Records
---
Amino acid sequence: VYNYDLLDGLGALSKNNQGQNTIIYDE
């Protein structure tokens, strides 16, 4: 599971468990 945190920028890969403003891509 890859967590892309929008706060770090679009397309930025970050391992943050944030439900808000976070797009989770399950691959």
---
Amino acid sequence: MFNRGAHLSTRRCPVDQDTLRILLREAVRETVAEVLQTVLELDRTAFLQVHGGRRNGYYPRKLETTFGQVDLKVPRDRESRYYPAFLKPYARRLVDVGEVAVALYAAGVSQRKAAEILSLLLGHRYSHETLSALTDEVLEAAGAFRTRPLPEEMAFVYLDGLSPKGLQGRRRDRTGKRVCGPGHRP
């Protein structure tokens, strides 16, 4: 259960909370940019499968999100019929659907229901197949993000405890504790 050979460092982390907050915000901003870029690619692919046509490169677009400005490469088609469903023309701010998407995923909403909800938010209907492909890619990227190696200066310790209510024999406080060092998951 515990790795007795693992040693936890007693030295303090040289990164203060503000720096850590900035680093975390930057990591989330980059992840949001990657997810949005993936959505753009999948949206154009789905459009071209239905309407036909050919790819024709990209154009740059800056978009303000909850986590900061992201630079996107918006795909286009040769006949200029395609425009991303979730990007309104000339809009520079993104509707915050991230919270809605996380809430839908956490609530276990089916892909068909999620497609209906997103169509109300975005004004465009996505098929459940497109959402399935998007979900698979996002979950794959999230898994890679969770399992990536952290830089040495980012040290974290996972602490967890359980405090059952009531008496345990004659002892009132019986709290289970577990500490996991680097490389070990609870």
---
Amino acid sequence: LGVPLLASVDRLPCYACPVPSVRGAPEQIRSVREPLGRKRQATRSRQPQPTLKLYKLNPFGADTECSMLGINCKQPNRTMAITAALALSVLYILYTFNACLLSSINRTLKQVPTVGGATVTTMERPAAVATQLPQVRILGSIVRIVPLTDEGAGTGGTNTTDGSPKYRFLRQQGLRPSRHLPDALIIGVKKSGTRALLEFIRLHPDVRAAGCEVHFFDRHYGKGLAWYRHHMPPTIEGQLTMEKTPSYFITRDAPRRVRHMNPATRLLVVVRDPVTRAISDYTQARSKKRDMKRFEELAFTNGSAGGVVDTSWGPVRIGVYAKYLERWLEAFPLAQLLFVSGERLIADPAVEIGRVQDFLGLKRVVTEKHFYFNSTKGFPCLLKSEERSSPHCLGKTKGRNHPRIDPAAIDRLREFYRPFNQKFYQLTGINFGWP
């Protein structure tokens, strides 16, 4: 029994070596060795003692020397080392594959910031999301939930500019516009080109203007600034809020009220020849009232050009610009007022709008490429506007034909306005060249 056991020691694999040494072997094993003859002992004395060096099943090379029956066995286990290397290679391949898979999934799933600050993961199905949530706006592959309410929503009023393409663009960008008091006002003068100025400057992307005349500082001042703010268009940071009401220029308390709202308010005044302005004012009123008296009957006390000019009649009274400008200069420095020529605004709108953009601190975006001249109306028209992307003119009333006025009445009015015009030139520092 012992001979085959001893003979097989040289062929034992290292993992089969028993851990106990000869010193710790049981008594039965020692008894097997003792009966061996002298020949066997002599043979062993002549032959070198075989030794085997063992390595534990450890891929990192930590070896353990084992001995059995006085024989050291220590041999590198190449098979297990190769197996460990293959296992590590497989693990690396699996890790790389999983990383690529996770990256692909991450491109499909998007992190959505909500109003509360939490994040929600959603599949990239923008059409379905927009159907379920009307207030979800999509910008590229990012979905933002945008509340479109503001502090004035509870007052019950609406602003027609909320549906303009510019405002829809802001909502699509995921921005949160809010309403502010105006930074600039077009305060006058009536029938001098205030509507044209407003429409032209609204082409600028950094300008947002109320769509209608609010009449806050002359009719609705008692309703308070909160009411006024609600009637302003929503804007974002960097945009300028504007409003146009031509009657502010002739309202006695308007300068003080505007200064109380904001002493830094910038004021734009559109003026034209007071005689042609009065005729235009009369033409507009006559279009609404067919049985209106002739111009000469209203402009002069005796109803003819030979009489005294009737300054109690509105169209004539408004043309005394110097009288009203003095009130505004008591509340604001001249540097905060810009005077726009109504005649040049029609003849060369790009030049006047360039001055307005400089005055408001805006980049010159609106240029001659935005205008074309309508030879039928004799009035500049827009190639595009805030509400429309197609070319159009301002309205049917722009460029309307004036009634025939007695030339003697026109000469008499020019004589009347001449000293007031000179005073206005001195106050503004601009010679408008009116006859």
